[in-house]
Amino acid sequence: MTSDASMLAVLKNQLDSLKQQQLWRRRWNADTPCAPKVYVEGRELIAFCSNDYLGLAADPLVIEALREGASIYGAGSGASHLISGHSRAHEKLETALADFFSPHIISGRALYLSSGYMANLAVITALADAHSEIFSEALNHASLIDAARLSRAKVSIYPHRDLTALSAMLASSTAERKLIVTDGVFSMDGDIAPLTEILRLCELHDAWLIVDDAHGFGVLGKQGRGLIEHFSLRSERLILIGTLSKAAGVAGAFITAHETIIEWLIQRARPYIYSTASPPALAHALLTSLTIIAGEEGTRRRAVLNERIAQWKSAINLKHWQMLESETPIQPVLIGDNALTMAAAQQLREHGFWVGSVRPPTVPLGTARLRVTLSSAHTHEQVAQLASHVNTLERT
User: Fold this and answer.
1) Which of 81, 194, 289, 311 is deepest in the core (most CB within 10 A)?
2) Would you identify the CATH topology of the domain 60-294?
3) E strands present in the chain
4) Is the pTM of this model over 0.85?
């Protein structure tokens, strides 16, 4: 009893400390679908904080496909994929994804999982062991960091986009298996990994390249295949991970790689083997999302999104804060101080804008920021209004 009470007291003190450091996080209750205009706890706001880059989360065709999927397959899968939870919808989605990425993944297959976090854990823990070395980008997503820790491999962290350091690390490695692990588009900075050069290093040092392109899939490349299309990459050494909850607008994640890699993951990736399969209705809806992304409508939406990005970059005029260099929908405004960042986000809410405020440990100490995310569903006027308010706030 005393021990339990003591633990609660310690946790309470630590929570109080988070509040004092302006690191307290709260959840906001949205009452409407994910879209630029949302109602949040009784107020209408213009949201610039979701990752719904192509506006598919509330697209009528995707919603109807989800309804249809539920009517065909029911509400849940009932078991893991290797027991009885793998449905025809899952199989169709995996086949469609493999076909979609076939220009870039040699002899490729695809695997559908419940989340991007699970996909990253599955790949890295199944492919790396105590005889491996993982070369991990300094700004990788938390799921990649956690996966590397769980893998039992030696982990070497190379500085952000530093090819010279990465090359030296690879040259000095004696590991039986080398895995370079990187985000494609870095989720808090919005810049991109130099994948062409990294893949050359893989070929030179007999390494594998694992890319989490959660924020590039659907957005970059002529048909939305992400960074591997953007850089025209094609290799057996590529293992691509992407989420289906961002540009695709639904839920889940995929892994696409050489068929031998995918079969190994089915047999040995614990997060895949021991998790109940996602509802088949989601996979059914994602077939519609993928059709939109790959077709003329996807091309149109990416063009609109690029117009919004260019508009934002042109309209922002900061004197004290800093815009980070990004050509993607992730447009961070670096403030630095936690309290100032929280105050800026609050003032924007008062003006009717919902913008994410990102603080440590999600970003390094002293780099708190507003994380503005743009969508093809945003209007020209909405982007102009937000830019005007950010400029005004920054000068006060």
Assistant:
1) 289
2) Aspartate Aminotransferase; domain 2 (3.40.640)
3) 37-40, 43-47, 108-113, 132-137, 154-158, 177-183, 207-212, 238-243, 253-258, 322-323, 330-336, 353-354, 356-358, 368-373
4) yes
> Would the CATH topology of 25-54+296-395 be identical to that of 60-294?
no
- What's the CA gap between 234 and 96, in Å, rounded? 18
| Domain 25-54+296-395, CATH | 3.90.1150.10
The residue written with tokens 């919603």 in the block is 63
Q: Give the residue numbers marked as catalytic.
A: 187, 215, 246
pLDDT (tens digit per residue) in 177-221? 999 999 999 999 999 999 999 999 999 999 999 999 999 999 999
Strand partners of residue 247 = none
At 345-370, the pLDDT tens digits run 999 999 999 999 999 999 999 999 99
Q: What's the CA gap between 177 and 132, in Å, rounded?
A: 5
* Domain-wise residue ranges, the chain: 25-54+296-395, 60-294
Residues 93, 112 contacting (CB under 8 angstroms): yes
